[in-house]
Specification:
about 35% helix, about 325 residues, alpha/beta, binds ligand PBG, eight-stranded parallel β-barrel
């Protein structure tokens, strides 16, 4: 054949392929999520094989292992005792609560590890919602934001480096920024869950924290989070959310879930100069694990290919339960 251009020329050898590679993965791209509980035993999470509800002590060991693998940021999620859950989620701003305690211990042992937190009421709410639910079953916005600001301050005071509002209330990024600045935490960053969709992919996570919406009071409780999380049909709306978060002072924008929303990552990359993060959520993790356990896919190759897809779409950072495994595979 008489071809001027033969793309295969640059694919001939491993050396050539590595020269023209457009994207790569590094452990420093990863944010490693960890679950912590008050119990005295490490508990495996059934729907997320290889992940655990750590005790505070055991978590410190896991964070050190992650550090040694090159991971530089962890995000903490608490499983709170049922007896501490209330309608206003007030345990989230208890200075002596599980998360502030864990942050203090972690920062004392490994001050250089970046600690990200999650800001939302759901782990602390007896209704399992990210905000306060009123007697008519409406998830209140402005009242919730006041509690979220208190939660963020307690986390910053304990030593958190990056505050991650995952609640999708309107105006929360600006309100949290103002609260942090007023209290002298202007150095603490905000990684906003900017485009967080009302997704079925969060199922295993809600099992891990026992935080799914539930009806234990007499008031009507919305069964899903669609009055605050985004409609999976919408893409332009994600740009509006990104513009608002940027104006309100977000330092990093996150898209969640990741895999079914690569187009959103790509769009935000075009719209904003801020770092973009992708959240490779619990349901995405569980599906890969389940297929790998059946021997239907090769876990290592599928995970690395998936993580690379986030980079290719435009993400700088990837929040993933695969972080430690991926870091190990990358160092081979
Ligand atoms: C809490 C929160 C959720 C996740 C992260 N923070 C659950 C939800 O919004 O219902 C999900 C993470 C995952 O599925 O891995 N607001």
């Amino acid at each position: 054949m008489d071809l001027t251009y033969r793309p295969r020329r640059l694919r001939r050898s491993s050396a050539l392929r590595s020269m023209v590679r457009e994207n790569s993965l590094s452990p420093a791209d990863f944010i490693y999520p960890l679950f912590v509980h008050e119990g005295s035993e490490i508990e495996p999470i059934a729907a997320m094989p290889g992940t655990y509800r750590w005790t505070v002590d055991a978590l410190l060991g896991e964070v050190e292992r992650a550090w040694d693998l090159g991971i530089r940021c962890v995000v903490l999620f608490p499983k709170i005792a049922e007896s501490l859950k209330t309608e206003d989620g007030a345990e989230c701003f208890n200075e002596k609560g599980l998360i502030p305690q864990t942050i203090r211990r972690l920062k004392a042992e490994l001050p250089e590890m970046t600690v990200m937190t999650d800001v939302a009421l759901d782990p602390y709410s007896c209704d399992g919602h990210d905000g306060i639910v009123d007697s008519a079953g409406v998830v209140l916005n402005d009242e919730t934001v006041e509690n979220l600001c208190r939660q963020a301050l307690v986390q910053a005071n304990a030593g958190a480096d990056l505050i991650g509002p995952s609640d999708m209330m309107d105006g929360r990024v600006g309100a949290i920024r103002e609260s942090l600045d007023e209290e002298g935490y202007e150095h603490v960053g905000i990684i906003s869950y900017t485009a967080k969709y009302a997704s079925a992919y969060y199922g295993p996570f809600r099992e891990a924290l026992d935080s799914a919406p539930r009806d234990i009071t007499t008031k009507p409780i919305p069964k899903d989070k669609s009055t605050y999380q985004m409609d999976p049909s919408n893409a332009r709306e994600a740009i509006t959310e990104a513009q608002l978060d940027e104006q309100e002072g977000a330092d990093i924008l996150m898209v969640k879930p990741g895999l079914a929303y690569l187009d959103i990552i790509y769009r935000l990359r075009q719209e904003s100069e801020l770092p973009i993060a992708a959240y490779n959520v619990s349901g995405e993790f569980a599906m890969v694990k389940a297929a790998a356990q059946q021997g239907w896919i090769d876990e290592e190759s599928v995970v690395l290919e998936t993580l690379l897809s986030f980079k290719r779409a435009g993400a700088d950072l990837i929040l993933t339960y695969h972080a430690c495994d991926a870091a190990r595979w990358l160092s081979k």
